[in-house]
Amino acid sequence: MRILLVLPLALAVASCSARDSAVAEDGRERLVGLRADDLRLCAGVPNLTASSAGGEFWTYDRTPPASGVSAPVPVIGGSLSVAAGSTCRVTFQLVDGRVTRIGYSAESALPLSQNAACAPVVQGCLGMVDRGTVRRE
User: Fold this and answer.
1) Would 136 be classed as within a structural domain?
2) How many distinct structural domains can be found in the chain?
3) What does UniProt give as the signal peptide span (predicted)?
4) What tens-digit pLDDT sequence spans the chain (137 residues)?
5) Does any domain span residue 137?
């Protein structure tokens, strides 16, 4: 009976994670060209910054709250907890004050949702690009 209750919730969590992963991948392409001031406006102040011959690097670390169901599901030899916990590090490379590349380093407990935890970092920026509040060039 518990499995019948937990299975739809687990599928919903997996679906949301897959959607968030797609948002992160969309951001990797659509935010190239964003000005440094606009990036700071939509993503906030980075956790880390560094400079090299390749440009500036702004890094954002995010650990969103775990989502999912933590009800134990009985299986042979114990139980299984269904939850989606993940962390993400997003690094923006900026050259001449504009985003040139975006890299993700993420961990996920769910398959097919590798970069899902990165979505909150880029989601606000994507919304501002869509509304024309900020522009890529």
Assistant:
1) no
2) 1
3) 1-18
4) 555 444 444 434 444 566 778 888 899 999 999 999 999 999 999 999 999 999 999 999 987 555 554 445 455 555 544 445 568 899 999 999 999 999 998 775 555 567 888 888 899 999 999 999 987 77
5) no
